[in-house]
Specification:
By secondary structure, the chain is α/β, with parallel strands linked by helices. The protein has two domains: about 160 residues, Medium-chain alcohol dehydrogenases, catalytic domain (Quinone Oxidoreductase, Chain A, domain 1, Alpha-Beta Complex); about 140 residues, Rossmann fold (3-Layer(aba) Sandwich). The chain has ten helices and 15 strands. Strands 3, 4, 5, 6, 7, 14 and 15 form a seven-stranded mixed sheet that branches. The chain has a six-stranded parallel sheet with strand order 10-9-8-11-12-13. A two-stranded antiparallel ribbon has the order 1-2. Strand 8, helix 5 and strand 9 form a beta-alpha-beta unit. The radius of gyration is 19 Å and the shape is globular. It starts with a strand and ends with a strand. The relative contact order is 0.17.
Length: about 325
Amino acid sequence: MMKAIVQDVYGSADVLELRDIARPGPGDGQVLVRVRGAGVDQGVWHLMTGLPYLVRLFGYGLKKPKVPVRGREVAGVVAAVGPGVTRFAVGDEVFGICEGSFAEYACAKEDKLAPKPTSLSFEEAAASPISGVTALQAVRDAGQVTVGQKVLILGAGGGVGSFAVQLAKAFGAEVTGVCSTGKVELVRSLGADAVIDYRTTNIAGDGKLYDVILDTAGNRPLTLLRRLLVPKGTLVIIGGEGGGKLTGGFQRSLVAPLVAMFSGRKLRGLVARETHLDLEALASMIEAGSVKPAVDKVFPLAEAPAAIQYLHEGRARGKVVVQV
């Protein structure tokens, strides 16, 4: 048996319970991880509430959660390996992505794990997989950020945004971060060349144009962001918040390609790929000192519901982690 954060129905954080449940066993190509840390990302809130309803159509359960244990970012120690696993052995320290990381043990597919960066604690490593890989794919692939470009990052003080600021700087860009008042100092400490507090300053007020905009905040009109781009600039929409119960903020990603047809600018939504190759690329940059997870608060496993609520209220400066 093991302790885990479990839900039987969709709803607010009140539906989550700390329970004793059966410990899973690894199947073909799977690794059983003794969890030491589990990151909290916005996806956890969406899977907890089942909102927007579009999430349920992605295979997570129409009427109730198909996987009852919450949490997807994980860091820990390999406790067992299933048939066919060749990249890991018992005792290896790993980090990556799985279903059900808010628990003492979790099973992950071998190809969604990578060796944990030795320079990171388990809590820091747990903060990195989804947010770090999403930011890497946004900067390197979708945004194709290069040396000397001017990059604007919305939501720069959040999980993905805090990684994106550091990655864009590592790729040689001049970075402007947009965040709320309480996160200005964090964003500046991450290496941003300029920081805009959106609560006191209009992000379009100075007339500056950008080669690349990375929108991790998910709530500004496409028309506004398009006007902030140079004629052949690129907007990357990373997820979406707000909006209605059906599609939430994701409709902007669906509409963006249509808007781009009437503009020389590239407007695209990002659907991050969960791959061990990019986990390894991220780990290499972490070990080289180019990137470091910004961990705001660490909650014990029993307080995972409070951790999710803290993140959803927008209070987190960087990442929130559940310690197991």
